[in-house]
Amino acid sequence: MSIPILKLYNYLLISIQTEIDDKTAIQFQEDLLDKIHKTGATGVVIDLTSVDIIDSFIAKVLGDVITMSDLMGAKVVLTGIQPAVAMTLIDLGIHLQNVATALDLEQGLIKLYQELRV
Amino acid sequence: MNTNLRNIAIENSDTIVQMWLEKIDSLKGEEFRFSTSDELFENTNREFVNVIFTSIKQQGSLIEVITFSEKLITLGWPLSYITDGLQLFRRVTIDYILSNSDQVDTNFFSAVLTSVDKWVEPIIHQLINEYTGSWEHILSIQRIALQELSAPLIPVTDGITIMPLIGTIDTERAKQIMENLLDGVIKHNSEVVLIDITGVPVVDTMVAHHIIQAAEAVRLIGSNCILVGIRPEIAQTIVNLGIDLTNLPTKSSLKKGFITALEMTNRKVINLKPMEDGIEEMINSIQGE
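YS: structure for the whole thing
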């Protein structure tokens, strides 16, 4: 089961709608990096609105993907993290320190637009 | 034997009541004397013994006791007074029965004790139950009220929300603060949340830790957190304890924090009319008169 990656102008949109297991997460990491390489996208929005559980492994993979995308020249914004998920992550000691976040997809895109324009 | 004793008590109820009333007056505490009028005191005492005798007559029926105890609770009479009064009643009754009988053997003596105990104990139990029941009820109501007040969230304008915190923060409350904060941010779609700690008396490492965690969680869901209302002594404690708040923007007052929040959402406060214009208008209107 792979996660669809949509292209919108210079941006890539990913909405994660299923429970992510470890395999899917790794698969997603590869897919996204490939897609960035292929399209030359400069911004990525990963929307987590429908994700109820994030464990430490998924959090690590997400953090890695973000660093990797950064290396490839694409800025990543995480959007729609649920309160319960945020609390679990903080409890686990995962602070995702250098990751940009936004409330929803709309504000995520605005954030990307502002940061990339500068 | 038992009925016999009961009859003695009921027949001589007037004398026993008289003896009891004489002694009960000494129990009336100082602080108690001021808050109740003598008349009310007298009436309630009479009702008190009446209730006791009714209960004895009806062989331990507690219906009267329940109504009476409810009345006492509303009046705010201390439980200690009531229990002391009942103990006094027990003593007076035993004294009376013993002094008016010619039998002095141990059997009779213990029979008197047992039966008087049987009259008084259920009443004491009932009263204590009613009192503790009402206390527990009050306590639970207050706990709920406290919970409601513990983490309020006020949306002030589009995208800006304030959480004023008042009073000591413990782990349970910190958890509630975080939940309310995150749910509120999602609900009101706030870009900036101001946490106001003006009313928090002490900020130790634990409180700071909780606040930092809440702020981090807020950042994760895509909003920003500003800590406002840091008093000088709080700033000193934070630095002396070596708490690192560098990742958390802080402001001294809610006002400054609010202005920063407006800036973060690309807005600012402007005066609709410059001050000078207002003064000029005023002068003109005075001249016109």
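YS: worth flagging: DSSP finds twelve helices and five strands in chain B.
IM: good catch. Also The two ends of chain B are 102 Å apart (CA to CA).
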